[in-house]
């Protein structure tokens, strides 16, 4: 059985549905294939956050109180040192939402613009004509369907079920994300035992432990979340260390959830002939938090504009006609994220004592810097700030609040991350110079000490 469409998307998560909606709004026929049942999509993790100011930017209806996906709106959050001291207020409003109801609302919105969904349908393999992608074979129960499409989109999540099947020389890397290239998140949905304790309507975070306390949908509840690289076991070890230091009011655990997000650099190119990868399959997440929805929507928005214009011109969706997607994303958000990711080795070397010292001295972990990181994905390091930072660290060396090895790692990361960001900001305008650019990028990542292969 064969069918045709302009765009075939594998995966009905937030990235796939948003991109499909943007293409359908331009009048193109879109089919989204999803292996789960409609009502079960997104049930891996229940609660998620979206920056409140991003709904307007991406043209998504704002959830309001009374909607099934709405929990609450937080105007600000607080970050603490490892011992729970030196609170920093981060004034950055965000919506606390439930993922599955949110996706159900997005499904209906997409369908209202003509997007066709095929649930309980599995991707089998790509199809090719003259060595170029021309569609995909999918399986729906016992029925097999071959879709002929101008563009196949991998939005299948962290398994990257389509991208990993690409030929080695197709222009998009086909690596599988390894266990040590993931961020492991464990959420404990709790209920406070003190019946007089009001509902948790704030968020508190301890950056050293990557642990946070946030609202849930329960009127007497909250969420204790922790994230760590390596494994769920490592995340639990980090949380145990947290509990040994920070005392929370008595609670009981209602249930737990686990999930993973990519924690590695994205492919150097997101596009090939008739192909595009988005979301977790493209490793698009905020390196400092692991959250990826609005970060992915940025790539989706760019991709929809470029692909839509190419189709309007009557162009075949070759790698070259889609190349502008790479250019516009990597030169801006991609460069910022790459610079942050390159600082991970130095951040990982910081001890509790050093982290607490920086909190106390209001360096790196100042309210302004934390807010800038959330709003603009970068800290505005003026000359005065840099001088203050290194002055504080030098003082820390003499007072034994900061080690020479950590200073050495910080200096290295500042230099290399700056080079990586500048290199990404100079991404080539055509694929002709791509090989040279990616070879240099590979050398820079090796200098950063970040495992990327």
Topology:
Blueprint: E1 2-10, H1 14-25, E2 30-33, E3 47-51, H2 54-58, E4 70-74, E5 77-80, E6 88-90, E7 94-98, H3 99-112, E8 116-118, E9 122-129, E10 132-140, E11 143-154, E12 182-192, E13 203-206, E14 211-214, E15 221-229, H4 232-245, E16 251-262, E17 271-272, E18 275-277, H5 293-313, H6 319-341, H7 344-348, H8 352-361, H9 367-376, H10 383-398, H11 404-425, H12 434-448
Parallel strand pairs: 1-2, 1-11, 2-8, 5-13, 11-18
Antiparallel strand pairs: 3-7, 4-7, 5-6, 9-10, 10-11, 12-15, 12-16, 13-14, 14-15, 17-18
Helix pairs in contact: 1-3, 1-5, 5-6, 6-11, 11-12
Explain the overall architecture.
The protein is of the alpha/beta class. It has 3 domains: 2-72 and 94-177 and 267-331, FAD/NAD(P)-binding domain, CATH 3.50.50; 180-262, Alpha-Beta Plaits (2-Layer Sandwich); 340-448, no CATH class. Helix content is 37%, strand content 25%. It contains 12 helices and 18 strands. The strands form 3 sheets. Strands 1, 2, 8, 9, 10, 11, 17 and 18 form an 8-stranded mixed β-sheet that branches. It has a 7-stranded mixed β-sheet with strand order 6-5-13-14-15-12-16. The longest helix has 23 residues, at 319-341. The radius of gyration is 23 Å and the shape is globular.
């Amino acid at each position: 059985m064969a069918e045709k469409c302009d765009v075939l998307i594998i995966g009905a998560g937030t990235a796939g549905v948003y991109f499909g909606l943007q293409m359908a709004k331009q009048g193109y026929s879109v089919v989204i294939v999803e292996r789960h049942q409609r009502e079960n999509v997104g049930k891996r993790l229940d609660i998620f956050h979206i920056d409140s100011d991003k709904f307007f930017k991406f043209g998504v209806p704002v959830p309001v109180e009374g909607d099934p996906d709405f929990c609450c709106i937080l105007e600000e959050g607080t970050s603490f040192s490892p011992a729970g001291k030196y609170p920093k207020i981060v004034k950055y409003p965000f919506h606390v939402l439930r993922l599955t109801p949110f996706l159900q609302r997005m499904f209906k919105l997409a369908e209202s613009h003509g997007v066709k969904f095929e649930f309980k349908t599995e991707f089998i393999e790509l199809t090719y004509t003259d060595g170029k992608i021309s569609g995909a074979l999918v399986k729906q129960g016992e029925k097999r369907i071959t879709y002929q499409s101008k563009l196949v989109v991998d939005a299948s999540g962290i398994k990257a079920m389509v991208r990993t099947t690409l030929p080695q020389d197709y222009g998009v890397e086909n690596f599988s994300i390894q266990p040590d290239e993931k961020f492991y998140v464990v959420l404990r949905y709790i209920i406070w035992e003190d019946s007089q304790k009001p509902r948790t309507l704030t968020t508190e975070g301890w950056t050293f432990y990557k642990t946070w306390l946030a609202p849930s949908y329960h009127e007497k509840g909250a969420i204790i979340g922790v994230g760590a690289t390596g494994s769920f076991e490592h995340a639990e070890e980090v949380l145990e260390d947290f509990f040994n230091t920070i005392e929370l009011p008595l609670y009981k655990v209602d249930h737990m959830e686990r999930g993973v997000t990519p924690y590695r650099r994205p492919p150097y190119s997101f596009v090939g002939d008739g192909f595009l990868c988005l979301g977790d399959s493209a490793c698009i997440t905020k390196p400092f938090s692991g959250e990826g929805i609005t970060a992915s929507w940025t790539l989706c928005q760019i991709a929809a504009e470029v692909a839509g214009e190419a189709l309007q011109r009557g162009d075949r969706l070759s790698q070259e006609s889609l190349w502008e997607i790479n250019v516009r994303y990597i030169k801006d958000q991609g460069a910022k994220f790459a610079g942050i990711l390159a600082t991970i080795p130095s951040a990982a070397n910081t001890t509790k004592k050093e982290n607490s010292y920086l909190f106390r001295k209001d360096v790196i972990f100042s309210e302004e810097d934390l807010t800038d990181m959330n709003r603009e994905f970068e800290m505005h390091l003026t000359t005065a700030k840099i001088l203050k930072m290194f002055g504080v660290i030098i003082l820390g060396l003499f007072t034994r609040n900061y080690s020479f090895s950590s200073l050495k790692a910080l200096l290295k990361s500042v230099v290399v991350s700056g080079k990586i960001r500048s290199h990404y900001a100079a991404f080539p305008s055509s694929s002709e110079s791509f090989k040279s650019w990616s070879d240099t990028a590979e050398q820079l990542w090796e200098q950063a000490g970040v495992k990327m292969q």
